[in-house]
Specification:
The protein is of the alpha/beta class and 178 residues long. It is built from eight helices and five strands. The strands form two sheets. A three-stranded parallel sheet has the order 1-2-3, covered by helices on one side. Strands 4-5 form a two-stranded antiparallel ribbon. A hairpin with a 2-residue loop joins strand 4 (133-137) and strand 5. Helix 2 (32-41) packs across helix 4 (68-81).
């Protein structure tokens, strides 16, 4: 059953090993091309190529010599390489910038074709393209639907969206007024 699930926790764990070993999770069944492709899909490939030893760079215990976003993207790469039927991301994009997040989410559309993806996130930008969004608070489902449906209801999702995109909306309104 575990082979069918790829899981990226909010608090990533990396081993004191090479980047390559952290991606293939000490299972030598993946080719270098598969490792590189999973790194590209998680948008960590260019960072790895900038490291002195590339994929052979040693990662400190728990990834101490990497940024939070780099750790998250290596963990995402580890989950992607398994090609699981179910991919669960538990706030796995919280440490990446919005531009990188957009790229990774774009790759998920391809990765998740014919599969199940569960994305747990606080940022609407990470989930707005989902087929179904479930808004929860203290274990209770408050709303469910897709992005457009939830915005039209003007409930808690709408409030969160407004709060997160307030600045963007102000700029848009200011630009239209001029």
């Amino acid at each position: 059953m575990r082979e069918n699930i790829g899981y990226v926790p909010q608090d990533n764990f990396l081993f004191s090993a090479t980047v390559k070993e952290n991606i293939h999770f000490f299972r030598d069944i993946y080719s270098d091309e598969e490792i590189e492709e999973s790194a590209k899909l998680s948008c960590i490939y260019d960072n790895i190529m900038d490291f002195t030893h590339g994929f052979d760079t040693r990662v400190g215990e728990r990834g101490t010599n990497l940024s939070g976003g780099q750790k998250q993207r290596i963990s995402i790469s580890r989950a992607i390489i398994k090609n699981p039927a179910i991919l669960i991301l538990d706030d796995a994009l919280s440490a990446v910038d919005t531009k990188t997040e957009e790229k990774i989410i774009g790759h998920f559309k391809h990765i998740l074709t014919g599969k199940t993806g569960i994305i747990i996130a606080h940022r609407i930008s990470a989930i707005k393209h989902a087929d179904e969004i479930i808004v929860m608070d203290h274990g209770e489902i408050l709303e469910r639907g897709n992005h457009e449906e939830l915005l039209q209801r003007e409930g808690i999702y709408f409030d969160i969206y407004e709060e997160q995109f307030k600045e963007e909306m102000r700029k848009k309104v200011g630009h239209e007024a001029s």
